[in-house]
Design goal:
globular; AhpD-like
């Protein structure tokens, strides 16, 4: 059960209802974690703005989902793992790739470098090595891509924190945190 109020469409004020309508129009649903964010319309707007800007960048959608899956597993966020498994599948990630992402890698060599980099950023709170930056560049990632990976790490940490602190009710097909043997 959620520990932070999930704003329902029925209890939402006019500003929250307008935000929900915009989210519903774009996603076809309003995920529970956004209903938790809606407790602070300012926080929800900030997240949606950052998410929108980050989605328009140079980093491809599959790599963004790979990072989200890796960090949800690393940070033990069942909500985000369930959500990004569903979103990743819809984006075209196969089951074996999702498992590789959850384990901190990828079947795609270039994406594996980004996933590894994202996990290191998280594990070391940004205190990565010069060698890790060079590995990103050598894999073909631009300075823009590197900044976007860092941005996506920040967004995923934010959603992982919200999912865990709030114990947000999972409204996607539930995925267990334990890795398959």
């Amino acid at each position: 059960m959620a520990r932070i109020n999930i704003v329902s469409p029925e209890s939402a004020n006019a500003e929250q209802k307008a935000l929900f309508s915009a989210i519903q129009a774009q996603l076809g649903m309003v995920p529970n974690f956004l209903k938790v964010f809606a407790n602070s319309p300012a926080a929800l707007k900030a997240f949606l703005g950052l998410h929108g800007i980050a989605g328009d960048g140079s980093l491809d959608a599959l790599t963004r989902e790979r990072i989200a899956l890796a960090l949800a597993q690393q940070n033990s966020c069942a909500y985000c793992l369930s959500a990004h498994t569903a979103i990743g599948r819809k984006a075209g990630l196969a089951a074996a790739e999702i498992e590789a992402n959850r384990a901190g890698g990828s079947q795609d060599a270039k994406a594996a470098v980004a996933v590894k980099f994202a996990r290191s950023l998280t594990a070391h709170m940004g205190d990565i090595t010069t060698a890790e930056l060079l590995e990103m560049r050598e894999a073909g990632y631009s300075e823009s891509d590197i900044v976007e990976v860092i941005t996506h790490v920040g967004m995923n940490i934010l959603t992982n924190l919200l999912g865990k602190a709030g114990r947000v009710d999972i409204d996607f097909p539930k995925v267990e945190l334990g890795l398959a043997a």
